[in-house]
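EI: anyone free to look at a 268-residue chain?
SC: sure, send it
EI:
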Amino acid sequence: MTTYAIGDLHGCLTPLRRLLDKLNYDPANDRLWFVGDLINRGPESLETLRFVKDLGDNAVTVLGNHDLHLLAVMHGVRKPAGKDTLEGILNAPDRDELCHWLAARPLLHVDRELHHILVHAGIHPGWTLKRARKLSKELHRELTENLPEFLSRMYGNTPAGWSKDLSPDDRQRFAINAFTRMRYCHADGSLDFDYNGSPANAPAPLLPWHQLPTRKALDMTIIFGHWSSHPAICREGVIPTDRGCVWGGDLVAYAIETRRSHWVSGRV
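SC: here you go
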């Protein structure tokens, strides 16, 4: 049995099918982990969402910022952006079923047996694993029990800094930003959303969230996506998987048990 963690799909079902063929994926023996952003910007958002949903218990998916954007558009909280490719989902006869399934996905998946964590953007450097799991469960309850109201107060870049004393609304907004949007932090751990390029060109004193010297040790490997400009080779304990498939880059699958990466080109 092999567990494959697959990078951001963004509605690119055709490369995913090619990748699964290359892996000789066997649903009877293999499992798939998706880092979120299943949809949007690519040409097959509806087909991709249906495909992953139909994998059932054979797949684990965590929510990404584009997945949340779809839910916000569906509930009238946000307007579609010019580059969105969500029309097929929004007009589909099974739209409600698909979005209900999507909203029920977690923000964080922890597998203690495999010693790996799956998340879309990252885990804030000031959090212990216990704190991250507690926050992800809190957000999951909001998304499954109070979705429209939660979406209406989810957006915004503040607060930028973490504190256990934040109000419930601020705590949840900070947590959703960390799990689904975070790339860089300042030295004090506050989030920065102004720069999203490669770490090699990052202005001082910004650091990737996983490189803060004060980051709490989780003693597990974190698999994340969201960041197509991040280098493929990373420090021990973090595995980046987004290679910009939707922009003509590669779609990557990281085999957890063998620690090997496999990929196909996203180019048609």
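EI: The mean pLDDT is 96.
SC: 👍
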